[in-house]
Amino acid sequence: MDYVIGVDIGTQSTKALLVDHAGSIVAQHASSYELDTPRPLWAEQWPSVWCDAVTECIQQIVRKSGLPAGRIKAICVSSLYGGAGIPVDRQMKPLHPCLIWMDRRANDEVRWINETVDLERLYTITGNSVDSYYGFTKMLWIKKNRPDIWKRTHLFLPPNAYINYLLCGEIAVDHSSAGNIGGIYDVRQRCWSEEMLDCLGIPAQMMPGRLVNSSDVVGRLLPEQAAHLGLAAGTAIVAGGVDAAVATFAAGVTSAGNHVAMIGTSMCWGYINQQVDAHHGLISMPHVYNSREDLYIFGGAIAAGASVSWFREGFCQAEIAAAAQLEGGDAHQILEEEIKNIAPGADGIIFLPYLMGERSPVWDAKASGAFIGLSLFHTRAHLYRAVLEGVSFALRHNIEAGAKGAQSLDAKLIVVGGAAHSDLWMQMIADVTGYQVYTIEENVEAALGAALLAAVGIGLVDDNAAKKGWVTLVPRTTPDSVARVRYDHAFSIYCDVYPALKPIMHRLQGGYSQNALVSQNAESV
């Protein structure tokens, strides 16, 4: 029997699976690390962190499996959206930390683009809009603020493409990663847009020339890497892609109308379509399956699970301590027990989960988090429920924006990620969105999708098997009609809060930025 490895590089951890031809998991391993946030709204990572984690994960699953190296036929890497990508020199040495999807520093560049570039032309060519989320704006930030790095940059490589290069010595970028850069990728022609590159002042030679499908074999494992990882030299290295699209593929989403919410550190909700309209405020890229025809169109909240973690770590020390005293204890479970008897709507509290600015559909790097409706009646439990509801409202906000451009959306919503462990949250999402919620029995996401792409790439599974996927969908819950009515009311308020607070948010951000600048100048004196 032959086996494949799927790896997923995430924002806070890397996971790897070793599976057989039917998707049965033989071994798995995860490695955690930290995100660098040197300034407010900055988020970056050195690729060495990812390299070390990928190496550890592959070594461990090979060791745990006990399989002969020759039985493992392919590796495929899925990765977080790497924003600008990794700037490397001609020796392929990283020159600067990767400005990842969460980074929001390129606001001046966004302003320049909005004032200078023909936006309708950019929307038409790329299928995407302009925001500091996109990699092309981050590239322009490096050009303006790190001219020494820009001058030495040979190529910008997405995280999975850089890892693939280390593994096999070949340079290639999959279409999902290229399309997600926005701004410089022609979504209809499936190639870099020379027109937009020239318009934006980004040299075409900085973009890797070889664009491939996510299931294409880009090269073969180098002998020195094989010896280090415990694998056979010549093992196929399959391209992979952006984690949200790969997780969507893992959930069996290969047809128009299928849609999935991936809720981890961030939240991504997406669906499959064959055309895109950038005016609806979502992000588009070629899907990782059937890349030449299908598009993965998605929206998301930057700080979804991150909002929950922020609240838990900052305000729930008692629950964390209590969980530590219990075998297998989880602070989230304790908190959920505390909020079960609080009615939908958190007794009048609305939470905006905009703790790192926000992506779709508001697209505002200066948006900030907020609790609205507080009174002396409210408790910490009310606030926790409001956080879960706020992320759920952000999901509905994206679904309603995305539905405007979808050919159709299925009646079932598939949810993957850490949020799927919570029965309460799954019911909340069903009630807020009005969709039947399904989850995946296997409890894995992008890493399994990467393994399936590896199997497709070497012919271990055919197209029919790929479309069905390796996962088992489990009906989780259906909307409660009473809760649905309450959430409709709360959601309408949620949608009104941001426009009302936007001017104040921007004033606060402006004052904060000025204070930070003064402090920085004082430190340098």
TrEMBL record:
<dbReference type="InterPro" id="IPR018485">
    <property type="entry name" value="FGGY_C"/>
</dbReference>
<dbReference type="Pfam" id="PF02782">
    <property type="entry name" value="FGGY_C"/>
</dbReference>
<keyword id="KW-0418">Kinase</keyword>
<dbReference type="InterPro" id="IPR018483">
    <property type="entry name" value="Carb_kinase_FGGY_CS"/>
</dbReference>
<feature type="domain" description="Carbohydrate kinase FGGY N-terminal">
    <location>
        <begin position="3"/>
        <end position="249"/>
    </location>
</feature>
<dbReference type="Pfam" id="PF00370">
    <property type="entry name" value="FGGY_N"/>
</dbReference>
<keyword id="KW-0808">Transferase</keyword>
<dbReference type="InterPro" id="IPR000577">
    <property type="entry name" value="Carb_kinase_FGGY"/>
</dbReference>
<dbReference type="InterPro" id="IPR050406">
    <property type="entry name" value="FGGY_Carb_Kinase"/>
</dbReference>
<comment type="similarity">
    <text>Belongs to the FGGY kinase family.</text>
</comment>
<protein>
    <submittedName>
        <fullName>Xylulokinase</fullName>
        <ecNumber>2.7.1.17</ecNumber>
    </submittedName>
</protein>
<dbReference type="GO" id="GO:0004856">
    <property type="term" value="F:D-xylulokinase activity"/>
</dbReference>
<feature type="domain" description="Carbohydrate kinase FGGY C-terminal">
    <location>
        <begin position="261"/>
        <end position="457"/>
    </location>
</feature>
<dbReference type="InterPro" id="IPR043129">
    <property type="entry name" value="ATPase_NBD"/>
</dbReference>
<dbReference type="InterPro" id="IPR018484">
    <property type="entry name" value="FGGY_N"/>
</dbReference>
